[in-house]
What does this fold into?
Amino acid sequence: MKKVIFEAEENEHRLTFDAAKLAKSFEENMNVYFNYTLSYQKRMNSKQKSGLGHIKILRTALTDFFMSSGVELSKIALAKLGKWQKSRKRDDMTAKMKDIDPVKFSNARSSLPYGIRKDCSYVGQRRRSISLGDVCMAVEYDRTSV
It folds into this structure.
């Protein structure tokens, strides 16, 4: 952490990230972002929450920070960041699908009645080119118009 953070005099001695060093740290297997997101996701899973929303917001904020600082991530850093995000999604799905004490799904699928959800999944399996949201809206419309 001390490698990528410093105390900025022009910012009332607040701790600030060094954008270039932070970008370079993404080339390593473990860095501030990877450590934080992993521990955050584990903590949220213990509270029966996903944590992916916060991680995505953080990643967007980091992208904005790098762009405003004029720092580009290397190809290695971008590849590792992409793989890391995929691993967070994989761990999230593992936590949601475990047999004992799974993390609850927090998307629209969980708020649909079972019959509609079943119809959506059936139609979604038959027509892969249509998104699940479009299918659910179509199924719901068909049920209300009958």
